[in-house]
Amino acid sequence: MKNTPSFPLLAVRFLLFCGLFMLQAGCQQLFHAQDAPLKGQTVTVSMTVPQQPPPAAKPLQQGTEQPVLQKTPQGPLDSRLLPTETSLHTDPLTIKGQADAARVQQKPARTAIDKAGTVLTNKTVAEDMVLRGTVLIKGALVVTPQATLRIDPGTRILFAPAPGSAELSRLVVQGRIVASGTVQQPILFAPALNQPLAGDWGGVVLLNSEKKNSFDHCRIEGAQTGIEAHFSRFTGRGVMVSKSRTGIALYDSEAGLQGCSISRCDRGGRLADSELDLRDSTLQENRQGIDAQRSSFTLSSVKVLNNSQEGVAADQCRFRLTSSQFVENRSGLRLTGGDGQLLLCRFSQNRESGAELVSARIRINSSSFIQNSGVGILLENARGSIVGSVFSENRAGNLHNRGSESFAALLNWWGSADEKQILASIHDPERKNDAALILFAPFLKERPVTAP
Prior knowledge:
25-stranded parallel beta sheet, 452 residues, 38% strand, Pectate Lyase C-like, 14-stranded parallel beta sheet, 10% helix
């Protein structure tokens, strides 16, 4: 039997239905009827919902400690995200400057050469000996007075200090040396390092050796003194000395050199009480070309170029300079005392004077003094003459006399045929007192063809 709702429950449902019907009709009268009082207006209905009271606040802990924050555990950072050593510096310009300074201070890495066909350590040669191939000399190789050392073409002789010694390695010849290199196979004398620097080894020393020593087509690099002769004599052809403190030094000695080159040395040549005959050679890019004292020297067809100080500086010497060029040195030639001759020489583009003559006796023929930044010739108590030569475009004047000696400068070309212009280029303080010490007239009206 089915359950039938009781009468009271049906009555309640009927009353609720009637109430809802009447409520809907009332709302329609309020909003939708013709004269509804709320027609076209917005009605806001608000409801109050009871909430639970907030929890009571807990009192703060006493003290200055901050609450500890809980962190989520993480793995280690990727190394690519960590700061590098250079990124610790925030200024990129500082980093670049430090790198540049480090590069400047860093010296080139040099490695020792220790492989050689022959190794000689503090060796004394008492009999004739021949060197060929690659030879490594540690310490000194001494050739006694009765022995002859011969070196074959293409031989490489390398020098290194002896084990446990700080002294420079040297080849010392008391007897005789014959170094027979050729143009195709020159002989090399150098330190046992891959990048030679001046003073890495001592050099070749001739000691009381007046025999027929000869150096043909030899290259000498990185020496303290390339060839140093004491009371000795030698000849050389095609000798090249570079990156050394002194190229060739003669002390009470004699040397004849032809077709040689001395470059990038502190001093190209050093002469003291000696004799030098230098022909068809070049002295270039040294601090000083030749420094001579109480010596006799001849330069023939020699180029003296780009030396930072004097091309040739001679004190109390006898000299003969022929067909030679002195170009782009600080001063081409400085002669103090002594006497000699210049013939067919050219002095040009030197940073100071073309030639400085101090208390010297000299004859100058058919030479040129042009385009020097200082004066063409500076005279200081020098005596002599200059004939058939050319003076032109010297910024500080052609001729300057600072002494009290007379000097004959007749029959020369001064870059002009105008006497007033010639006088303006000659500085002679005594001319104001009608006691001119430089005689220039008569002068040439055009440039002589013989002057270089």
